[in-house]
Amino acid sequence: MTPKHPLSIPQEFITMILNEKAGYFHQVEGWTLNCAAIGAVLADLSLRSRIDTDEESIFLLDSTKTGDEVLDLCLAEIASNPDPQEPRYWIERLAVHSEDIIDTTLKHLVQLEIMTHHEGGFYTTNHCDWYAEQRQYPKSETVGQYMNSRIEKAVFTDTIPDPRDSLIIGLLNACEIIKFIFDELGEEQEQRIELICRIEKLNRVIPVSVRQVVVAPALQRLPHTKPIPKIPMRTMISNRHLWDGNLPALFGSLAKRYGPVFQIGVPFQKPRTFLAGPTANHWVRRNSRKFTTSGNYFREVEMLCGANNLLPSLDGPEHFRLRKLMARVYSNASFYDRLDDMLRLSRQFMVDQKWQAGSELKVQRDSRLLTNFQMFKVLLSTDAQDLFEDLVKWNERAILCYVANFLPKFMAHTPTMKRRFRLYEKLARRIEQNHLPLQRADAIPELADELIALHNSDPQFIPEQNLLFMLAATPIFQSIYLGDMLGFVLFEMARQPHISARIREEANEIFADGDPSKDEFTPEKFDVTRRFLMECLRLYPIIGVSLRNVANSCVLENYSLPLREKLYIVQSAAHYMSDCFPEPYEFDIDRYLPPRNEHNGPVYAPYGLDAHTCAGQVWFHLQLTVTMLLIAYYFEFEPLPKDYKLKIDPFPALSVTKKLKLRIASQLHQLPA
Questions:
Q1: Can you give the pLDDT at residue 135?
Q2: pLDDT tens digits for range 249-277
Q3: What is the CATH number of domain 9-215?
Q4: CA triplet 321, 298, 555: central angle to 5 degrees?
Q5: Which residues pair with 272 in a beta bridge?
Q6: Where exactly does CATH 1.10.3630.10 map onto the chain?
Q7: Dist. CA 617–CA 332, nearest whole Å
Q8: pLDDT at residue 669 tops 90
Q9: Residue 544: CB partners within 8 Å, gap ≥ 6?
Q10: pTM score of the predicted model
Q11: Is residue 103 helix, strand or coil?
């Protein structure tokens, strides 16, 4: 997709405010950014001769559409009121559209291959061939680097900038972000910026008007905050979802009744503040990086482990740096490179555990052991089955004591807990012994290889105390969460035999001629399996609740969230709200087909929602898909008893209870010896 013009002013402005070290945008106060985005639109409309401006008025010249939906949205509104109005009037009036304008601009930049959107809401700029040809800049630079060097040249030399660059400099200066982009600004450069902002008539109007509106808005009104609803304990106790353990459904019903922010009293503790429902999800996706932090919740767990600055507690550039490593390890391509191993190991587990007709599975235990066997063998070339159950018990107790605060902290320091924790060091040393340089010379890089290499190259970023815990604990945590999801999948496959039969048809086709190559294992061949898994993830999300602290006081829907307030963000509550998912308690895999596409947007968030959304979700989705297809190919299950009513163990994350058992009703194909 190559446009006639290189980029619009709004697109260049948004690209300039991206901080690529952090993977997100330089933090600009919301109202300021909104005004600057509208200023960029007005500047572009002026350069296209759709409007004219002076210090006092904006005049409509031509209402003909530009073909750019962002510009045309604002042009249509100006055309609907053609009487001349002062620039600040239009900046304030159009600011209500600014969030949609920013989102649309980002979407277009991704479509144009100027930017890449990463999981967790992060962005980076790319080298772009068509843009490089039009703007004649080196192929060694990304678009962001080229634009920064363009603006830097205008600010740090006597070169006369072209009108577009001077406008962008004016807008960056108006929202006071240019000092973060160029941290070496001295008095001489500040004077130079002021001079640039006075060169062009348009620059004397639009950025100045933006600054005036930011400082003294005429139309904007600060919301009057209102008290947060407090939910009586009797309301909680009488809710059937509490007793079923279905926390997403519980909080979906509370959000529908009380709104996006509410508090629940806890005996002998301060009331806990919850965000839930679609309004909260939209707010979190857009604002969590600016107003919340995850570090405080996990700091004590880190201290318990003798580590610091692990992925769950990191924010900012270091968080993004570590996520990029994880994204490389857990990428789609990385999984497909290991597809043969994943299939072989899954079958090996079934043989070792003597899965056959008549066998009974303890679903929670067996599902976790299967995913742990897959994870450690494929990503760490190590067997951890002998240590797994002890480490699971340590993890669950530590989270209940230090993160959820449901148990007193001394219970994390018992002799048994100390003995179990020492197993982490034992496991980490075992992993290290399997990843000596000579052993790994020609092997596909694994998670352990990447972490050890990063530790060796930058021991301050990943010190040894962190490395040991990350090598052992990260895959253990992942095995638990993924195994619990597989437990729900197996239960639904047993409860939904008509859909399981369709999954089996896909499996029979995929494995008809032996194991598929990575080129043959395409999404089109497992569409029913994919949508079945998506529906299981909606009903039983892997990450149902995110814990955050308010780092900067803020307002959500006129509810004040003060500094240091602890937040429980139940992003999965929307999964059980009928305005997001009609008939939310029905198991319906057609939700994810067009034109319904009910999963589009932040209402569907089974892996989390904000910057800390699960970094391995692409891999995990494929791992679960392969496991489902293999199980459907070999076995049919039935619940024990057949009328078993699902109960959910909600802490520390959703899982089936230990009581759930499944019987292998029949074995359809012979497992390899």
A1: 83
A2: 999 999 999 999 999 987 777 889 999 99
A3: 1.10.3630.10
A4: 85
A5: 264
A6: 9-215
A7: 10
A8: yes
A9: 247, 248, 570, 571, 572, 653, 654
A10: 0.87
A11: helix
